[in-house]
Amino acid sequence: MKYLPLLLLSLLFVGCDKGDDTPQNPTEAFYFPPTTGSTWETKSIASLGWNQSAVQPLKDYLAQKNTKSFMILVNGRIVMEEYFNGHTAAATWQWNSAGKTLVATTTGIAQQEGLLSINNKASQYLGTGWTSETLDKENLITSRHLLTMSSGLNDASELVIKSNLTYLADAGTRWSYHNVFQKLMDVVAAASKQDFEVYFNTKLKNKIGMDGFWNYGAIFKIYNSSTRSMARFGLLALNNGKWNDEQIINETYFKESISTSQTINPSYGYLWWLNGKSKYMVPGGQTVYQGALVPNAPADMYAAMGAEDQRIYVIPSKNMVVIRMGDASDPANPNFALSGFDSALWEKINAVIK
What we know:
By secondary structure, the chain is α+β, with helices and mostly antiparallel strands. It has a single domain, classed as Beta-lactamase (3-Layer(aba) Sandwich), CATH 3.40.710.10. The protein contains twelve helices and 13 strands. The strands form four sheets. The protein has a six-stranded antiparallel beta sheet, with helices on both faces. It has a three-stranded antiparallel beta sheet with strand order 3-5-4. Strands 6-7 form a two-stranded antiparallel sheet. A hairpin with an 8-residue loop joins strand 9 (279-280) and strand 10 (289-290). The longest helix is centred in the last third of the chain and has 14 residues, at 340-353. It is globular. Its EC number is 3.-.-.-. InterPro entries: Beta-lactam-related, Beta-lactam/transpept-like, Diverse_Enzym_Activities.
């Protein structure tokens, strides 16, 4: 009997030795890379028990489809980091519409600081007459309508100027993918009394160690950054807006962002795309398609999607973030968001992770 305590202690240590730190172990700590420097912990494919024979076919596919960079993170650690066609870890690339999620997040930060409310009419911050609608129709549009693509403004032109912002439907009654979301940047600027980029840099970019800059073109306002900076934002999203011990964006607001925001297109949140819903719509039309956005991707996935297949896939059930940057996978069809590339890519990813 005197050996029993020693035996129990021995069994305890054996039980705690997992051999590696695979994310399937629920006790593994979530990792955040330092906000300065190039240090970033990695994790081997072998330690995850993934199918190593499927890795090269995935790389080959990515190279064939004009990819510049690709990353897979599990619990914050890099499992794959690949660069193609001369692109490097230091090089920047445009997020295109994937950067909408940066605007949505920054808007939420401004709300949590009491600078604005997304339920207030947009003209409270933009001033009356920011559209070419009648005042009664303009006053129906809230910042939340801009976040959810349901402003009802005419979507015939992507150029966001007053003469193009004409009435098509009452706010909240029509979903339409539209660049008018960019007015949220003006809402934040007015509410914070500083340039949007200055506020964004202070409240979001610098706090999680991102690099990058906003390119203010004639039509689009596009974020450009390194691949790792895109991955940093993906990690923030995977952790419900928290970075290390700091809640950068209110968790309640962030969870609203990645939940169905209106009934017209249930696969859309606050500028985030949502998988696993019963139906979805795509940019450029009013057709409602039945089924999930990307049927062969995890149902709980939410994604930042930009033209030419810029992607941040966030998969909570797998503690995973996947990043893809590059030129359009199909140059003849650069698309605005969802494309056939998503399904084909997930076929290759599934072969690796299953």
